[in-house]
Design brief:
By secondary structure, the protein is of the alpha+beta class. The protein is built from twelve helices and 19 strands. The protein has two domains: about 250 residues, FAD/NAD(P)-binding domain (3-Layer(bba) Sandwich); about 150 residues, no CATH class. The chain binds flavin-adenine dinucleotide.
């Protein structure tokens, strides 16, 4: 009997186990989970609604959504993409439904249903789950692999899948040290930005549907909805920028100027649009008539940043006033003082270097029998269901590779 260990009873680990028990029924699968309960993170995804995947319909280049690992994901998604993921979940009684931006959710909008389905699939297939038993070391022993746990057990396995998630938690990937595997330094990704500006902070709750945020002097920029919070900025475009700029922001200790384009028009488009509006409405007070779809409190804040009197009329704007207004609307700069609190969606950028893995099998290039899945790999995505899809895809590829490698035995 082929003995397989999965390190990490999380998203990728359980999905891998569910397919292994189908594709290699003669195997005995053991999941080692450091926590008391499996799949805790999966149960929290999408605010408990589980943004399980994405249609990818608006993605023209995978680098837009996978800042790390795009070319590997391109190859892997051809082998096990959305169609195969849907099929696997349909077999567990879970259908997907689409929301905006191609985001897919289980029809129940209930992450705990996904957890229960994976758990019962594992139970039915006789997968052994050992909770509260963290793996502390993995070593090669002739043709097999030894897995040592915190409780002192030491067992031999024919194949081992590393699915221990983002490296910043639970001692990271230190259990791989005996194997001398190249790791890319883990740093956080998908976080909000802390900005201390009392007039901005007083606009808490205001959102702009289509803004652009950028780090001046770099090509790092992201577009989408922007949300003002009492500690700074959040929303899809900020999370996206934090993902694109994860390494740069870490290197700068999360202190950087941040440029906001509140209207997503560029200067050449904004200037004539405002001038035409001013010509049309010369007697209207600027404070009471915004040429763009911006919330009125935000508009007042921006006028004050442009140094324009609240009782000024459009006829009084003048070319200097126009320039100041355009500048604030398209390139308003704030100082970021840090990351937001560790509460919101969060993934790790970094992990097992992709140079260590065979891009077809996700097996180690130097340690036969060792495989990698999920966030433990140096693959991570922006929000929208792409991180979970990476966990399903990489978990499935590991299962398929192990099944192929051992099915003849
Ligand atoms: C709050 C939140 C919401 C999210 N929402 C979404 C969403 O809606 N859509 C989306 O696509 N992505 C979302 N993500 C990201 C997504 O959840 C992760 O990318 C995904 O769960 C990664 O799966 P994984 O199996 O690699 O890691 P995990 O699911 O984290 O599982 C890893 C498991 O390994 C265990 N482990 C670690 N070290 C050891 C060890 N040494 N021995 C044994 N066990 C160990 C951990 O305890 C954990 O249970 C969200 C993330 C967070 C934090």
């Amino acid at each position: 009997m082929t003995r397989i260990a999965i390190i990490g009873g999380g998203t990728a680990g359980f999905f891998c186990a569910s397919l292994l028990s189908r594709d290699l029924p003669s195997s005995k699968v053991t999941i080692f989970e450091a926590g008391k309960r499996p799949m805790v993170k999966l149960g929290l995804t999408g605010g408990g609604r589980c943004n399980i995947s994405n249609t990818f319909e608006s993605v023209t280049d995978l680098r837009q959504v996978y800042p790390r690992g795009a070319s590997l994901m391109k190859r892997l998604l051809k082998e096990f993409g959305l169609t195969e993921t849907r099929k696997a979940f349909a077999a567990m009684g879970i259908e997907f439904e689409e929301e905006d931006a191609g985001r897919l959710f289980p029809a129940s909008r209930d992450a705990s249903q996904v957890v229960r389905a994976l758990l019962s699939c594992a139970r039915r297939s006789g997968v052994e789950l050992r909770c509260a038993d963290a793996v502390v070391a993995v070593q090669e022993s002739a043709t097999r692999i030894t897995v040592r746990t915190a409780s002192g057990t030491e067992e031999l396995f024919d194949a081992v899948v590393v699915a221990s998630g983002g490296c910043s938690s639970r001692g990271g990937l230190s259990f791989l040290e005996p194997l001398d595997i190249a790791l890319v330094e883990p740093v956080p990704s998908l976080f909000t930005l802390r900005i201390k500006d009392s007039s901005l902070n007083s606009l808490t709750g205001i959102s702009v549907p289509e803004a652009v945020v950028a780090i001046p002097g770099t090509s790092l920029r992201a577009t989408g909805a922007l949300l003002i919070t009492d500690w700074g900025l959040s929303g899809p475009c900020v999370l996206r920028l934090s993902s694109y700029a994860a390494r740069e922001l870490h290197a700068a200790s999360y202190r950087t100027p941040l440029m906001i384009n509140w209207i997503s028009f560029n200067e050449q488009e904004a200037r004539p649009a405002i001038a035409a509006f001013a010509a049309r409405e010369p007697q209207k007070m600027i404070a009471n008539s915004c040429p763009f779809a911006l919330p009125s409190r935000l508009w007042e804040h921006l006028l004050s940043r442009a140094g324009l009197r609240s009782d000024m009329r459009w006829a009084e704007l003048g070319s200097k006033g126009l320039s100041k207004l355009v500048s604030v609307l398209v390139s308003d700069v704030y100082e970021v003082l840090g990351k937001g609190a560790f509460k919101e969606e969060f993934v790790t950028c970094g992990g097992v270097s992709l140079s260590e893995v065979d891009s077809k099998t996700l097996g180690s290039r130097s340690h036969p029998g060792l495989y990698f899945a999920g966030e433990a790999l140096d693959i991570d995505a922006v929000t929208g269901g792409f991180n979970l899809q990476a966990a399903w895809t990489t978990g499935a590829i590991c299962a398929r590779s192990i099944a192929l490698s051992f099915s003849g035995e």
